[in-house]
Specification:
alpha+beta
Length: 308
């Protein structure tokens, strides 16, 4: 169990995460400091004429979308070829890359850093998992995003997830021994409390200063069937025979998923390795959608997903 001190340190972060989720794709980035090798972008003040700068920016936004989705496809490949532990390691490393770029953005206010980190993550994956260097056409990448978001909509409908919790990371904690289920969103430690509550058969709601961060319920047969499908179709790590399964919906480009990994990835890994839980990864392209909707090339292909 995490200490109350650790929980209090990140409750405010969790509230910020959920508040940002309410505005959808309008705000994408949160800053954290880390160390990593950087490709340093040119200063925003020295990018040539307005026309060429705008064209370069558009091209980079499109590339950030493309590489962002390909990063997820690469992770699926890593899982298939190298296994679940390799995926955990790859996620940890690409989130560390994101930390470094976002920290340098905060220090310089150079927005190019926010466009470079999906590209740097892709380079890492291609260098370390050469067999999983994915290169797909834009329509395929758009279809990947739209398909994942349709899946999220169906899940939200069946599990009655309120829109205020539809951000990343999104967690489903499910105990198949008693069907006690928790839905939680944000980079908070409540997921670990939910694990313990589900084992005990307890149902409660997690709130902080009036903001709901997660809640529990007893899943009905339809909901259990859906959760079991998510377990079998996701990237599973650990022992599938464990009673408690934690499903995390994430985006490789999600800063809040990166916060969770930084704060609690090691503890989550220990629960997996010690056989306390079965862990499953599913795709929720919240932040990569922002790149797509900002790209003049990709936005028309995404259609109504970029409205509102």
């Amino acid at each position: 169990m995490l200490s109350n001190k650790n929980m209090n340190q990140v409750l405010l972060i969790a509230v910020v995460v959920l508040a940002v989720a309410l505005v959808g794709v309008l705000i994408y980035f949160l800053v954290l400091k880390s160390s990593s090798t950087l490709v340093v972008p040119p200063s925003n003040k020295n990018q040539g004429t307005t026309g060429s700068s705008s064209s370069l920016q558009s091209s980079m936004i499109t590339l950030a979308f493309e590489r962002g989705v390909e990063n997820w496809l690469s992770l699926e490949c890593v899982y298939s070829k190298y296994g679940g532990n390799a995926v955990l390691n790859a996620l940890s490393n690409i989130y560390s890359i994101a930390y470094s770029y976002m920290y340098h953005y905060e220090q310089t206010s150079n927005t190019t850093y926010l466009l470079l980190y999906p590209i740097a993550q892709y380079q890492y994956l291609a260098s370390n998992y050469a067999e999983c260097a994915v290169s797909e056409g834009d329509q395929y990448l758009v279809n990947t995003v739209t398909g994942a978001l349709r899946n999220i909509s169906a899940i939200a409908y069946t599990l009655n997830i309120p829109s205020g919790l539809l951000g990343t990371p999104l967690f489903i904690v499910f105990n198949k021994a008693n069907n006690v289920t928790y839905i939680l969103a944000g980079a908070s430690p409540y997921v670990f409390y939910a694990i313990n509550y589900s084992k005990a058969g307890n149902i409660t709601t997690f709130t902080y200063q009036g903001q709901e961060l997660g809640y529990g319920f007893k899943a009905n047969s339809t909901q259990v069937s859906l959760i079991n499908e998510l377990v079998t179709t996701g990237l599973g790590v650990g022992d599938p025979n464990m009673n408690v399964t934690v499903i995390e919906f994430l985006d490789p480009e999600c800063p809040y998923c990166a916060i969770f990994q930084l704060e609690y990835g090691g503890y989550l890994d220990s629960l997996i390795s010690h056989g306390s839980i079965y862990y499953v990864i599913q795709y929720f392209p919240t932040h990569v959608l922002g790149y797509g909707c900002s790209s003049p090339t990709i936005a028309p292909m995404l259609g109504t997903l970029c409205q509102g």
